[in-house]
Task: structure prediction
Amino acid sequence: MPELMEMARVTLFGSRNAGNGVDFEPARDIPSLAGKVILITGAAGDLGRSTAVELARHGHPARIYVADLPRSEEEKKEVVDRIQREARGDASDHDRSETTEVRFLELNLTSFESIQKCAAEFVAQEDRLDILILNAGIIRVRLGLTSEGYETHFGLNYVGHALLSKLLLPTLLRTKETQAGADVRVVVVSSEGHAIAPAGGIQFDKVRTGCRDMTYSQRYGQSKLALIGFARELARHHPDLTMVAVHPGRILTGMADSLATESLLVRYTRPIAQFICVPVSVGIRNHLWAATSSDVVSGKYYEPVGVPGKESKLALDESLSQKLWEWTESELGAVSSPSL
Result:
């Protein structure tokens, strides 16, 4: 019953990026990101792509890497061209000279081999990484396992991102050490849905199964709870870097459309979605604030925009996040990035 109550609360009364949040306008508040390198997972989808567009349009970093599912060369070019085209908009000739280069990296977060290859390809091209945004994610009804046998939500949303972070951490640390005044960040995209995790939190003895005894929302919530704990532990172990978890709000995205094909609840609530959800252009503001604002506190979880202190009791449980860190180190400790 508590899980059902939490699910109803999140479904009907999720954050709408309005109220007591920070007044953040991308055009006004994104600082110069000149010379910086950014990597965004899931950046071919609505949230990730729009985040890349706004960072390129207003911050003008040197390069943005779009890390997303493998596709044809033509489709990759379409993703890259769209981001660059939307970022330019009605830019003046002066602004056009500051155009950010966008590059595509293939990344399947359900496969360690794909994650290793993505990390290796990135470090072969770059000696710095200033902002890593772990944005990709899924929510689905159907049961499934990743290539390494993790429950799909936990394996993709959490384990895959944890491994990618581990493999890119040396580059993040080197950037902090070698670039004067570097402000190196990892933005972990969690969700208010972390509150729907199973009673007791992460079921470590079940994450290498299909978690059949959980609802799909609990499987999703478990993975998003793990991401909040991961951000806190990253901050604790690497205090020179800024690690933060965010909830973007309830947003009208393609992921919701996909879920509607599997979930009766989602289909039945679609007529009221416009009243409880916000468009992507609003939903990305917490991403952008966390990636660029000087007010961000490392290790914190923020609901939109820039509102701390709204995580569940389980998300605040330091013993759980420490157990997660130890479990993750045990699972991923021997995995390294292969040479190309």
User: Anything to note?
Assistant: The chain has 15 helices and eight strands. The two ends are 51 Å apart (CA to CA). The mean pLDDT is 89. The CA atoms of residues 194 and 225 lie 5 Å apart.
